[in-house]
Design a protein that fits this description.
Strands 1-2 form a two-stranded antiparallel ribbon. Helix 21 (about 385-395) packs parallel to helix 23 (about 420-430). About 70% of the residues lie in helices and about 0% in strands. Among the domains are: about 1-50 and about 60-95; about 485-555; about 560-645. It has helices at about 10-15, 20-35, 65-75, 80-95, 100-110, 115-130, 135-150, 150-165, 175-185, 190-200, 210-220, 225-240, 245-260, 260-275, 280-290, 295-310, 315-325, 330-345, 350-360, 365-380, 385-395, 400-415, 420-430, 435-450, 455-465, 470-485, 490-500, 505-520, 525-540, 545-555, 560-575, 585-595, 600-610, 620-630, 635-645, and strands at about 55-60, 60. The chain is globular and about 105 Å long. The protein is mainly α.
C-alpha cells in the first residue's frame, strides 16, 4: 500500500493560531488537493491536537472533530471507501464523537457505488461499534438505497427486522418509510400486503400523501386491478389529499394499455377540473392507447392538441406515433408523418428511422425503404447498429443477402458492432436464398466476433438446415443446444419436426411434439407446428391420425388457420372415395369452435368457407351470427357476408 504524503510541518505550525472553523477548512482543502483517493493511510498529524490546546472542547466534541466530518464527506463523494474505513477506525481509537449525518452521507455513497449490502452492514455497526444512535432518518436512507438497487426482498427483510426488533425501539416509521415499503411490496407483486400497510398507516399516526397513493395505484394497475386503483383516486380526494399529475398519469396509462380510451379521456377531463395540467406523460399514454386501437388519425389530432396546449412532444411521443403507423401496415403514412414533423423542427432519431425502414421492407416497399435510408444519411442522421440492422433485415427479406452483407461490412468499418439480430437476419437471408455455405460463414463470423449465439440464432440455423435437407447437421446443432443449456423455443422444435417429416420420419417428429406437450407447459406447439404434422399425416393418407392431431390442437386452445383448412380440403378432395368438397367438415369445425367460445377461430373458418363457396348450414349461420355479432350489427354483418359471397 503506497504511503500518503505527510502533512506539511509549516502548515501544522501555522494552524495552531487559526480559529477552529478556519482550521477545518484548511484541513479539507489540503485533503482534497493532496491526498490520494485510493488505498492510502491517513497522516495522524492532521487530527492530533497540540498539547497546549488539548483541553479545548466544543460541548461534547473535541477540537478536530469537524475535520473528521469534512473528510468523511470528501471521501464519500469520491467513493474512497478504503480511506473511509481507515478514518472510521482512527476516530474510534481516538474516542471521537460520531454523528448520524456523517453516516447518512456514507450510506448515500454506498448507494451511488451500487453497494447496498455495505450500507446495511454500516447501519448495524452504527450503534454496536461506533455508539451512534440510529434514527428514522438513517433508517429511511438505507432503506431507499436498497430499494433503488432493486433488492426489494432484502429491503422488506431489513424493514421488518428493524421495526420488529427491540434494539431499534426508538425508530418509528414515518410517511417516507411507509412509501418505501409500499413501493417494495408492489414491485415484488405483493399488492395485497401493500394495501394492508397502507391501511395501517393511520395506526402509527402517519398520513398518506400523493406519492403513497400513486405508488399503490401503480402496483394495482400492474396487477390488472384498475378499478381498485381508480377508487383510490376518489378516496384520495375524500381524505383531503390533492391528486397530482403522477396519480392521474398512472391510471390513464393503465386504461390506455387496456384499450379503455373512454375512461381514460374522462380522467383527462377530471384532471383539468382539479387544476392538474396534462403533461407529456399524459399525452404519450393517450397517443399509445389510440395507436394500439388503430385510431391513428385521432392520435395525430391529439398531437396537434398537445402542441396547442404548449406541451412539447418528446422522442417517445413521435416514436410511439410512427411505430403505430408501422404496426398497422401504414409505413408510408408514417414516413409522411415524420416529414411533417421535421418541417415543424423535430428531427427524427434512429429509432423512428429503424421502425419505418423495417416497416417499409415488411410491407414489400423496399424501394421506399432504401430512399428513406438515403434521405436519413443526407439529413445528417448517422445510422447506428439499430438502423443498420433494420436495413440488413429488410434487404434479406427482399432476397438480397449479398447487398445486405455489404452494409454489414460498412457498418463494421464505421465502428458499429453487429449484434445477434444483425447476424441472424443475414444468416436467415442466405438460407432463404439457398446459399447454405454463406449462411454457415455468417454463423462462424458471429463466433469469431464474440457475438453470443442466443436461441433465435440456433433456431434459424436449425430451420435453415432442415429446409435444405441437412437433417444430420441440424441434429448436431440441436444436441449442441441441449448440451449448452440453451432454451429451446417453438421455432426450433417446429423446425426439427419439419425436418423429420420431410425425411419421412414422422414418428420421430411426433416424439418431439409430445415432448413439447408434456415436458414444458410454457412451450406449447403453435399453429405452424400442428400444420406440419397435419400435412405429414394427410400426405401419408393417415387421415385418422390427422384428426387426432386436430382434436389435440383444439383441446390445447390453438385455433386452426387458413393453411389448416387447405390441408384437409385437399385431402378430402384427392384422397377420399368418393371425393368430398369439405363443406361438412368445415361446418362442424365452426360449430365446435363457437361452442368453445373461440369466436376468432370460428370467424376465420367461415371466411375460408365463403372464399371457397362452401356455404355454412343455416343452423350454423344462426349460431355464428348470435355469437359473433352484436344485435345492432346483425343485419350489417349478414349484408357484408352476402356481398363477399357474390364477389
Amino acid at each position: 500500500m503506497p504511503k500518503c504524503s505527510t502533512f506539511p510541518k509549516t502548515l501544522l505550525k501555522h494552524s495552531l493560531h487559526l480559529k477552529p472553523q478556519t482550521l477545518t477548512l484548511t484541513f479539507l482543502s489540503y485533503s482534497s488537493s493532496n491526498l490520494p483517493h485510493t488505498h492510502h493511510s491517513l497522516p495522524p498529524q492532521i487530527f492530533k491536537s497540540p498539547s497546549n490546546t488539548s483541553s479545548h472542547k466544543w460541548g461534547s466534541y473535541k477540537l478536530g472533530d469537524l475535520s473528521f466530518y469534512s473528510l468523511i464527506e470528501n471521501f464519500s463523494n469520491s467513493l474512497d471507501f478504503t480511506s473511509l474505513e481507515q478514518l472510521l477506525h482512527q476516530m474510534k481509537c481516538e474516542n471521537r464523537v460520531f454523528i448520524e449525518k456523517s453516516f447518512i452521507i456514507m450510506f448515500k455513497a454506498y448507494g451511488k457505488a451500487h453497494l447496498p449490502q455495505k450500507a446495511l452492514d454500516l447501519f448495524h455497526r452504527m450503534g454496536a461499534e461506533f455508539h451512534c444512535k440510529q434514527t428514522v432518518k438513517s433508517f429511511n436512507t438505507v432503506l431507499n438505497v436498497v430499494i433503488q438497487e432493486g433488492c426489494f426482498d432484502l429491503a422488506l427483510e431489513f424493514y421488518n427486522h428493524v421495526i420488529d426488533s427491540n434494539s431499534f425501539s426508538n425508530i418509528q416509521p414515518n410517511g417516507l418509510s411507509f412509501n418505501l415499503v409500499i413501493k417494495a411490496l408492489c414491485r415484488v407483486g405483493n399488492v395485497d400486503q401493500a394495501v394492508e400497510v397502507f391501511r395501517g398507516m393511520s395506526d402509527r399516526n402517519c398520513v398518506a400523501d400523493g406519492y403513497t397513493y400513486s405508488t399503490l395505484m401503480h402496483g394495482l394497475c400492474n396487477e390488472g386491478r384498475i378499478d381498485e386503483a381508480v377508487s383510490l383516486l376518489d378516496e384520495m380526494q375524500v381524505e383531503g389529499t390533492f391528486p397530482n399529475p403522477v396519480a392521474f398519469n398512472v391510471l390513464i396509462s393503465a386504461l390506455c394499455k387496456k384499450g379503455d380510451l373512454s375512461r381514460a379521456s374522462k380522467l383527462v377531463d377530471n384532471m383539468f377540473l382539479k387544476g392538474c395540467v396534462p403533461n407529456e406523460v399524459t399525452y404519450n399514454s393517450l397517443v399509445h392507447g389510440l395507436c394500439l386501437k388503430g385510431k391513428l388519425d385521432k392520435a395525430m389530432s391529439l398531437l396537434n392538441r398537445m402542441v396547442a396546449n404548449k406541451c412539447v412532444p418528446n422522442d417517445i411521443t413521435f416514436g410511439t406515433l410512427v411505430d403505430g403507423f408501422v404496426k398497422h401496415g401504414r409505413a408510408l403514412d408514417g414516413v409522411r408523418v415524420l416529414v411533417s414533423l421535421e418541417e415543424k423542427g423535430y428531427r427524427g432519431n434512429e429509432f423512428s428511422y429503424s421502425s419505418l425502414i423495417s416497416g417499409l421492407f415488411k410491407e414489400g416497399k423496399g424501394e421506399h425503404g432504401m430512399q428513406l435510408w438515403k434521405e436519413m444519411v443526407e439529413k445528417g442522421c448517422k445510422p447506428n447498429t439499430i438502423v443498420y440492422s433494420a436495413l440488413i433485415d429488410g434487404l434479406c427479406r427482399e432476397g438480397k443477402p449479398d447487398e445486405a452483407k455489404e452494409y454489414l461490412i460498412e457498418m463494421k468499418n464505421k465502428g458499429h458492432t453487429p449484434n445477434s439480430f444483425t447476424y441472424s437476419s443475414l444468416m436467415w437471408g442466405y438460407f432463404e436464398a439457398g446459399d447454405i455455405h454463406k449462411a454457415i460463414l455468417v454463423w462462424k463470423e458471429m463466433t469469431d466476433n464474440d457475438c453470443n449465439h442466443h436461441e433465435v440464432c440456433y433456431s434459424i440455423l436449425i430451420n435453415g438446415l432442415c429446409k435444405n435437407g441437412k437433417l444430420k447437421e441440424a441434429l448436431i446443432v440441436w444436441k449442441q443446444m441441449l448440451s449448452r443449456g440453451i432454451k429451446l423455443d417453438v421455432v426450433a422444435y417446429s423446425s426439427m419436426i419439419h425436418g423429420f417429416c420431410n425425411a419421412q420420419l414422422v414418428e420421430q417428429g411426433m416424439k418431439l411434439f409430445n415432448q413439447m406437450l408434456c415436458h414444458n407447459p410454457k412451450l406449447q406447439p403453435d399453429v405452424v407446428t400442428y400444420n406440419i404434422l397435419l400435412n405429414a399425416f394427410c400426405t401419408k393418407n393417415s387421415v385418422s391420425r390427422a384428426i387426432d392431431i386436430l382434436n389435440t390442437m383444439l383441446d390445447q386452445g390453438c385455433d386452426p388457420d387458413f393453411i389448416t383448412c387447405d390441408i384437409f380440403l385437399k385431402t378430402l378432395r384427392d384422397n377420399m372415395d368418393p371425393p368430398q368438397d369439405g363443406r361438412e367438415f368445415l361446418d362442424e369445425l365452426v360449430v365446435r369452435l363457437i361452442k368453445r367460445q373461440r369466436t376468432v377461430g370460428a370467424s376465420n373458418i367461415i371466411e375460408v368457407m365463403l372464399q371457397k363457396f362452401l356455404l355454412p348450414k343455416p343452423s350454423t349461420w344462426a349460431l355464428a351470427v348470435q355469437q359473433l355479432c352484436k344485435p345492432m350489427k346483425v343485419r350489417k354483418t349478414i349484408s357484408e357476408c352476402q356481398s363477399r359471397m357474390c364477389c
